[in-house]
Design a protein that fits this description.
Number of domains: 2
Distance between the termini: 125 Å
Strand content: under 5%
Biased composition (Basic and acidic residues): 155-166
Structural class: mainly alpha
Helix content: 55-70%
Number of helices: 5
Region (Disordered): 1-20, 143-166
Length: 166
C-alpha cells in the first residue's frame, strides 16, 4: 500500500509541540508514521491539559465571582415623595446587571402609584432610560414646586391667624 504525501498533514513551524520543520517524505521513502503518531499524541495530550486547565479556570471564576442577585425593585410607599421613590428605584436598577430599557420601564410602572407621572407614562412610553429619567425629573420638579407652594400657603395662613388673634 502506498501513501501519497499530499494526504498527510504538513507540520507547521508554529506547531506548539515541535517547532522543527520535518522533511517531507519523497515518493521513494516510506512516511514516518511512528513520528507522526507521536506528534499527534502530543497535540492531543496538550489539548487535554488545556481543557482541564479551562475547567479549573471556569470553576475558579464561578466560585470567586458569584453573580449578584437581582435586586427587587421597591414599590412606591404611601406618602413617599416621587423624588425619594426615584432615588430608591435608581439604586435598585444599578444593582441589576444589564437591565434593558423596557425592563426598567415596566418595573417603574409596576412600582408607581396612580398619579400624574403614571398617567403620562401610560400614554407616552419613553424609548430610552434617559428619556424616562428626563420625564421623571420634570414631574419631580413639578411635585417639589407644589410642595413649596403648600408650605408658603401654610406659613402665610399661620401669620394671618396670629395677626387676627391679636
Amino acid at each position: 500500500m502506498r501513501l501519497c504525501n499530499r494526504l498527510l498533514p504538513r507540520p507547521s513551524t508554529s506547531s506548539p509541540v515541535d517547532n522543527r520543520a520535518h522533511a517531507m517524505v519523497g515518493h521513494n521513502q516510506a512516511p514516518d508514521l511512528e513520528g507522526l503518531h507521536r506528534e499527534m499524541y502530543g497535540i492531543a495530550e496538550q489539548i487535554r491539559i488545556m481543557n482541564k486547565n479551562n475547567a479549573y479556570l471556569i470553576q475558579h471564576l464561578i466560585i470567586n465571582n458569584p453573580p449578584s442577585p437581582a435586586a427587587p425593585i421597591p414599590p412606591e410607599k404611601n406618602g413617599e415623595s416621587l423624588k425619594d421613590y426615584i432615588k430608591h428605584f435608581n439604586q435598585a436598577v444599578l444593582e441589576v446587571e444589564d437591565a434593558s430599557d423596557k425592563v426598567v420601564f415596566v418595573a417603574m410602572m409596576e412600582g408607581l402609584h396612580p398619579g400624574p407621572l403614571f398617567d403620562s407614562l401610560s400614554r407616552n412610553i419613553p424609548k430610552t432610560q434617559s428619556a424616562l429619567q428626563s420625564k421623571v425629573d420634570k414631574y419631580i420638579a413639578t411635585e417639589e414646586l407644589a410642595e413649596t407652594k403648600r408650605r408658603r400657603r401654610g406659613r402665610d395662613n399661620n401669620k394671618k391667624n396670629k395677626s387676627d388673634s391679636k
